[in-house]
Amino acid sequence: MSVTPLRRALTVLAVAALAVPAAPTAAAADPDPKALTWTVQPATASGPDERRWITATVDPGQVVTEHLAVRNFSRSAVTFALKAADGYLTDKGRFNMLPSDRPSVDGGTWIDVQEKVTVGPNETRVVPFTITVPRGATPGDHPAGVAATVTSTGGTVNVESRVGFRVMMRVNGTVRASLPVQGLAVTYTPSWNPLAGGTVRVRYTVTNDGNVWVTGTGRVAVSDVLGLSNRDVTGEIEELLPGGSRQVEARVDGVWALGRLRTTVTTTPALPGDAQDGADLRQASGAVTTWIVPWAQLAVLFLLAALLLGVRVAVRRRRRRLAGLLALAREQGRREARESVLVGDSAAGGEPGPGDTQRQADTR
Predict the structure, then answer these.
(1) Of 145, 161, 169, 244, most Cβ neighbours within 10 A?
(2) Residues 224-238: pLDDT tens digits?
(3) What is the pLDDT of residues 24-45, one digit of tens each?
(4) The two domains 5-171 and 176-293 share their CATH topology (first three levels equal)
């Protein structure tokens, strides 16, 4: 059953413009891609189907026949060039196919499609194409793309606009998947609050060194020498084709910078869909040690130490002052006691009287 034009438009997976040097030609003879609208999607012999792209599980030497449908939404007939090429993922993770000036060496060479097709206004044309798997094809995924293109001339260059979809061909055999970690780099940012942990930012590169299209997860674990900052986070790794690489970033919050930090990244690959059974999925890991000086915490400890030292000095001074006051009070007490005794002795003796003189005389 045919899908609506809106659904067909949503199935478009790649639109790219390619500029290559060419000799000037008459611009009037070339269609203007800005004035054209078209879609390309998988199909059966009777018309477009519900697939977003074509997946084919094949054996070496096998030949498979598939179909594509080109829909022209323009008001005039257009002749489209049909091309196939190796597929790859862009830096943003979008599927694309090699431009016309780069030769294909893998899955793109397996697809044989007619060179051109003319499609009338608001017309859909179904075109068959074949996939011929080489007898020596290696097991695993061999991505490619097929597209309908329009070339126009602007100045001294030709501009190629194309719309197409991916063709994922998997050759039967042992399926391997691994995402080794490379270029692991770690930076630490302390918190503005010295009583709170900081943030560890991790950046690393994963490469699909298996033979199939994979996604995966990356687990980042951070630990310190005292075991006070054992934290981890897990993030998704977007799809990677065989041989493809992608940079991954992660963030771990609440980490205390207490000298040595050990950061370990472990990747676990996964196959899209339900193709996990029988696959050789291998974990990979990488680790790095970072030495962090906890300046904020050291400043707090310094201030606390200075405060404690100041309190201790103040307490000692107070004790010495109290001891001095007590000693002074005791000295004053003893002095007053001596003065009191002297005053008492003086009052008891007084001036000698007549009796005293007589006794002195009698004594003689």
Answers:
(1) 145
(2) 877 667 889 999 999
(3) 332 333 556 567 899 999 999 9
(4) yes
In which element (H, E) is residue 357 found? helix 354-363
3-class SS at 358? helix
Q: How many other CB atoms sit within 10 Å of the CB of residue 157?
A: 14
Superfamily for 5-171? Immunoglobulins (2.60.40.10)
Residues paired with residue 138 on neighbouring β-strands, in sequence order:
none
**What are the backbone dihedrals phi and psi of residue 20, each rounded to the nearest 5 degrees, phi first?**
-135, 145
SS (H, E, C) 134-202: CCCCCCEEEEEEEEEEEEEEECCEEEEEEEEEEEEEEECCCCEEECCEEEEEEEEECCCCCCCCEEEEE
Residue 159: CB atoms within 10 Å:
18
Distances (CA, A) of 69 to 85, 130, 173, 192, 265: 18, 14, 31, 60, 45
Span 176-293 CATH architecture: Sandwich (2.60)
- The answer to whether 66 and 169 have CB atoms below 8 angstroms apart is no
Parse the chain into domains and list their residue ranges: 5-171, 176-293, 295-329
Residue 267's Cβ-count burial label (10 Å; 0-12, 13-18, 19+) is buried
Nearest CA among 197, 183, 289 for reference residue 251: 197
pLDDT at 149 over 60: yes
Contacts of 331 (CB under 8 A, 6+ apart): none
Of residues 231, 42, 226, 74, the one with CA closest to residue 147 = 42
3-state secondary structure of 59: coil
Closest CA to 43 of 72, 59, 65, 58: 65
Q: Which amino acid is at 271?
A: L
